[in-house]
């Protein structure tokens, strides 16, 4: 039994030895790659680039890393120390199949000290300096992977987004010192003419302290500014870096100190900026840079021939945007290229801010309701105030009109009363003093009394008619009447009054006979009122033309004079109650201001209409239109029996 156990142990030992030997052989057979970065493993960009490179190659290759730390120690002595240290390590390290130099400073170092690396294949990655690209040609470099300079592409995107902006916006490019970033600044200003809606400005910083950065960015605001933040990189040679006092080369340092300093949209050239609240753009993607570099190295070592000797920087960049910042700045995906990537997509944004969104929506709806309520109340108050104002104006006008009416009516009443009183006193005095009565004087005074009594009766009748019209108690006594005779007789009764005023009154008719239902008294008063006005307001030796006609089942009667006429602004109110165009007591003609209002009310009772056309100082034309209709009655009045006293009463305010 002891012998069997011994044999089993020996067999196991043999297998273990063989396994370990094969593992060592496998390790010995794996190709080795040296990765030299000018940065430090503590820098975010350096870490991302290293991870991209490592993730792609580590399963198949042995990778060794060296860091120059030139950002932290930007002195020529540091390069010499690194050279000495690396030379010693290369004597200890095994031979490398490939050496990768990352960033301009490391690439310059590799080109300067190629002899250190023997037969290794040399690769330059993340190169910005075109001088390095040119020098690497025909100098034993397998491939140069350029870093992207996204000035033109980012400005084009910004211009596309803000091409329809209403107000001029300022686009500010923020860079490091002008002597180091002159090429980028010149490239920026070369696009100025392409985007007239943007005002181009450049601000250079030394990146010496957090305060410097924060003070610089706090000047910008969302409404008028756009920022293109060009992240400091290794494009400067070691000598350039040495001559600056830059303290903030780490992306994390820079991004941390400017986070939330300004609400202006910030487009960036580095992907890490997206995570710190920048809006986005064409960014240098260090992880992608490391991965592309790894692919090139692998293709070269495996001799696939898939890679070129120069990889353009755009292949190592990413067009990416922060969806949260897009929402804040009202930018939609439709404004951006189709190949753009996004972080914080809409779904993630909603999930992350569900409570805030609900609160905002509820607040917005409440505000909308409050605003709608206030607007409605304001509209109601405005309508109420408007109606109150209109009512006030109507009341004031009505009060003014009634005041004028009372004044005029008082004058109208006083005049005939004074005349009657004076005439009575004269008659009495003549009877008392003189033995014999002067018949002519007596008749004259009696005529004056009669005329002014008629005038008082007319005035009282008009007041009664207006009162009835206001109360809606006016009635109409329709009778089937031969209307042509009624009009002719009424017009003819006025002829003496017209002749006494040196006026020519003409009646013209297109109709010989017409039976229709009318109120004879009201028709008579309508005609007499219109003729009275025509006589009062006509010039001496003028003509008054009356006309009768039929138009579409309507009787048309018009009175046209060549008198003083009516001003255009007064035409709209001549049919209103208590209104006179000349309401002063010194006016040339007497009147209470209710005659035309009564005419209109009588016409309305007949379901007719009255229209006036007038030209100031040239005359007026009043046209009455009455519907032709009959009532069921066998009685027809052919003779209107116009009484002279009615004519005298209606024309009683015309003196000869």
In short:
The chain has 20 helices and 20 strands. It is of the alpha/beta class. The chain has a 6-stranded parallel β-sheet, sandwiched between helices.
Write the CATH homologous superfamily of the largest domain: Histidine kinase-like ATPase, C-terminal domain
Give helix % range. 40-55%
Name of the level-1 CATH class of the largest domain? Alpha Beta
Report low-confidence residues grouped into runs of 5 or more.
1-27, 234-244, 583-589
Q: Major sheet, described briefly? A: 6 strands, parallel
> How many domains in all?
3
Overall number of strands:
20
CATH topology of the largest domain: Heat Shock Protein 90
Shape: rod-shaped
Classify the secondary structure makeup into a structural class: alpha/beta
How would you describe this protein?
- The structure is a single chain.
- The protein is rod-shaped, with a radius of gyration of 55 Å.
- The chain is built from 20 helices and 20 strands.
- Helix 8 (210-217) crosses helix 10 (251-258).
- The strands form five sheets. The chain has a six-stranded parallel β-sheet with strand order 2-1-3-4-5-11, sandwiched between helices. The chain has a five-stranded mixed β-sheet with strand order 15-17-18-20-19, covered by helices on one side. A four-stranded parallel β-sheet has the order 7-6-8-9, covered by helices on one side.
- The chain is of the alpha/beta class and 656 residues long.
- It has helices at residues 2-29, 44-57, 76-92, 104-112, 130-136, 151-161, 182-189, 210-217, 238-242, 251-258, 272-275, 286-301, 323-328, 346-352, 354-433, 439-471, 483-500, 520-536, 595-605, 644-650; strands at 32-37, 62-67, 98-102, 121-127, 141-146, 169-175, 198-204, 225-229, 266-268, 280-284, 310-311, 317-322, 341-343, 479-482, 504-509, 515-518, 543-550, 554-560, 609-615, 619-627.
- The protein has three domains: 2-146, Rossmann fold, CATH 3.40.50.2300; 151-283 and 316-353, Response regulator (Rossmann fold, 3-Layer(aba) Sandwich); 473-650, Histidine kinase-like ATPase, C-terminal domain (Heat Shock Protein 90).
- Helix content is 48%, strand content 17%.
């Amino acid at each position: 039994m002891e012998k069997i156990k011994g044999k089993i142990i020996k067999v196991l030992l043999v297998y273990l030895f063989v396994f370990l030997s094969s593992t060592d052989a496998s390790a010995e057979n794996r190709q080795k790659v040296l990765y030299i970065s000018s940065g430090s493993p503590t820098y975010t960009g350096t870490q991302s680039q290293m991870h991209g490179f490592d993730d792609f190659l580590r399963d198949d290759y042995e990778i060794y890393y060296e860091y120059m730390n030139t950002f932290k120690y930007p002195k020529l002595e540091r390069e010499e120390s690194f050279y000495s240290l690396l030379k010693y390590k290369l004597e200890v390290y095994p031979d490398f199949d490939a050496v990768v130099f990352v960033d301009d400073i490391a690439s310059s170092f590799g080109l300067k000290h190629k002899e250190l690396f023997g037969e290794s294949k040399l690769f330059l990655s993340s190169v910005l300096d075109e001088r390095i690209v040119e020098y690497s040609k025909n100098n034993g470099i397998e491939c140069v992977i350029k870093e992207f300079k996204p000035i033109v592409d980012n400005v084009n995107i910004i211009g596309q987004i803000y091409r329809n902006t209403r107000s001029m916006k300022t686009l500010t490019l923020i860079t490091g010192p002008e002597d180091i970033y002159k090429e980028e600044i010149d490239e920026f200003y070369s696009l100025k003419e392409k985007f007239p809606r943007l005002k181009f400005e450049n601000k250079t910083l030394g990146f010496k302290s957090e305060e410097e950065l924060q003070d610089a960015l706090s000047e910008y605001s969302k409404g008028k500014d756009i920022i293109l933040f060009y992240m400091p990189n290794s494009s400067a040679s070691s000598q350039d870096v040495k001559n600056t006092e830059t303290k903030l080369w780490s992306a994390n340092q820079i991004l941390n100190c400017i986070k939330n300093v300004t609400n202006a949209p910030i487009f960036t050239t580095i992907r890490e900026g997206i995570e710190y609240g920048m809006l986005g753009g064409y960014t240098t993607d260090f992880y992608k840079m490391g991965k592309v570099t790894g692919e090139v190295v692998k293709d070269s070592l495996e001799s696939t021939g898939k890679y070129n000797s120069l990889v353009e920087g755009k292949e190592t960049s990413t067009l990416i945007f922060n969806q949260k910042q897009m929402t804040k700045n009202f930018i939609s995906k439709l404004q951006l290229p189709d190949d753009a990537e996004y972080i914080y997509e809409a779904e993630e944004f909603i999930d992350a801010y569900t409570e805030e969104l609900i609160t905002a929506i509820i607040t917005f709806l409440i505000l909308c309701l409050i605003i709608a309520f206030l607007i409605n109340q304001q509209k109601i108050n405005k309508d109420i105030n408007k109606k109150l104002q209109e009512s006030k104006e109507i009341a004031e006008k009505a009060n003014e009109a009634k005041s004028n009416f009372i004044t005029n009516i008082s004058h109208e009443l006083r005049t005939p009363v004074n005349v009657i009183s004076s005439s009575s006193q004269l008659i009495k005095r003549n009877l008392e003093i003189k033995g014999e009565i002067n018949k002519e004087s007596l008749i004259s005074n009696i005529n004056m009394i009669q005329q002014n009594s008629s005038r008082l009766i007319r005035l009282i009748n008009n007041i009664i008619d207006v009162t009835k019209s206001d109360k809606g108690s006016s009635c109409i006594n329709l009778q089937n009447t031969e209307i042509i005779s009624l009009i002719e007789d009424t017009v003819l009764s006025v002829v003496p009054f017209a002749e006494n005023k040196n006026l020519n009154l003409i009646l013209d008719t297109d109709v010989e006979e017409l039976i229709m239902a009318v109120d004879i008294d009201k028709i008579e008063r309508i005609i007499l009122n219109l003729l009275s006005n025509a006589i009062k307001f006509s010039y001496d030796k003028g003509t008054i033309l009356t006309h009768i006609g039929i138009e579409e089942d309507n009787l048309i009667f018009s009175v046209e004079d060549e008198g003083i006429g009516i001003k255009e602004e007064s035409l709209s109110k001549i049919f209103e109650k208590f209104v006179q165009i000349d309401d002063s007591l010194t006016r040339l003609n007497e009147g209470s201001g209710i005659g035309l209002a009564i005419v209109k009310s009588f016409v309305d009772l007949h379901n007719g209409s009255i229209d006036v056309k007038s030209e100031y100082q040239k005359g007026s034309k009043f046209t009455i239109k009455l519907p032709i209709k009959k009532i069921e009655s066998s009685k027809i009045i052919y003779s209107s029996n116009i009484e002279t006293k009615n004519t005298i009463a209606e024309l009683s305010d015309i003196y000869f």
